[in-house]
């Protein structure tokens, strides 16, 4: 974690294969999800919450995963209780998302996304762009070079042209 913070402070500007540091998330399934593994492809990172009114967007996130995952695109759900709308633990989150939304896309453990306890990825996004999630289902789209391509609020649907269309352009 310290190395990740040092990388952020040193002006890390991307997640390319040449980057000295990369961002890693603890996977809800155990192990880690390393964004460096997706260098050269778009990555969509979304802070989620099972009990949020926007939880229906899990269907759109799964559709993006099904559509673009075979091309190497990562659609990553980051459950967070920062807005007090997440279930009590990872097992409950995983079961709820699997049974309610048939979710198979990668998910992290419950992770802080704002404030002083924010995951280093979210601290980096805030430092680079000023964007911090203001609610659940905020989205960060990374370009293939690891730079931040765009950020989106909760109301932007995953399958919208603003997101899915942009992923298509980034894959060209």
UniProtKB/TrEMBL annotation:
InterPro entries noted in UniProt: Glutathione_peroxidase, GPX_AS, Thioredoxin-like_sf
Signal peptide segment: 1-19
UniProt GO molecular function: peroxidase activity
Keyword Oxidoreductase found: yes
Active site, renumbered: 52
Family: Belongs to the glutathione peroxidase family.
Coiled-coil ranges from the UniProt annotation: none
Gene3D superfamilies attached to this UniProt entry: Glutaredoxin
Gene Ontology BP term (one): cellular response to oxidative stress
UniProt keyword annotations, A-Z: Oxidoreductase, Peroxidase, Signal
Pfam family, one: GSHPx
Keyword Metal-binding found: no
Identification of the protein by name: Glutathione peroxidase
